[in-house]
Design brief:
143 residues, alpha+beta, 5 helices, 38% helix, globular
Length: 143
C-alpha cells in the first residue's frame, strides 16, 4: 500500500455529498469532548483498538480533528480523522460494511479534507489506504 497525495486546493464541492447523506437520513457533525468515550468505544468495536487510539488523539486537540456521521437516532454511522498520526494526514476513517454505498464515506472524506484545506494545507497525505481507487475517483488522489 502506497501513500496517496491529495490536492486540497482542487477538491470537489462537498454540498452534493452532504445532500446525498442527508436524503438517506444521516448528518455529519464534529464531535465535542463529551462525545469522546462513546465515539472511541464505537470505533474500537467496529475497527479495533489501534484506530480507537488514534481517535483518542483526535479528541486531544481543540477543536477535535474528527468528524462523525450519525443517523436520525443519533447513532454513529462512520467517522473520519485528520491531523492525527501526523499533521496534514487524513485518516483513519471508516464506515461499517452494512452502511457502505450510501455516500457516508465520501461525505466524511470531503468534510475532513476541506477542514485541512481551511487550516492552510495545500496537500493532504492518505497513508497506506488500501482503498486507493475510492480515493482516486473521489478526490483525485495520486500515489
Amino acid at each position: 500500500m502506497a501513500d496517496l497525495l491529495v490536492k486540497l486546493y482542487d477538491l470537489p464541492d462537498p454540498a452534493p455529498a452532504l445532500a446525498r447523506v442527508a436524503a438517506a437520513g444521516f448528518h455529519l457533525r464534529r464531535p465535542i469532548p463529551p462525545d469522546r468515550r462513546a465515539v472511541t468505544r464505537w470505533v474500537d468495536a467496529h475497527f479495533g483498538d489501534r484506530w480507537a487510539g488514534e481517535v483518542e488523539t483526535a479528541f486531544a486537540r481543540t477543536p477535535a480533528t474528527i468528524h462523525t456521521a450519525v443517523d436520525a437516532a443519533g447513532e454513529i454511522c462512520g467517522f473520519a480523522c485528520h491531523d492525527v498520526t501526523f499533521r496534514g494526514f487524513f485518516g483513519p476513517a471508516g464506515v461499517p460494511e452494512r452502511l457502505r454505498g450510501q455516500g457516508i464515506g465520501t461525505a466524511l472524506l470531503l468534510q475532513a479534507l476541506h477542514t485541512l484545506a481551511e487550516s492552510g494545507f495545500a496537500y493532504a497525505i492518505i497513508g497506506g489506504s488500501g482503498h486507493d481507487e475510492f480515493y482516486r475517483k473521489t478526490v483525485g488522489a495520486l500515489p
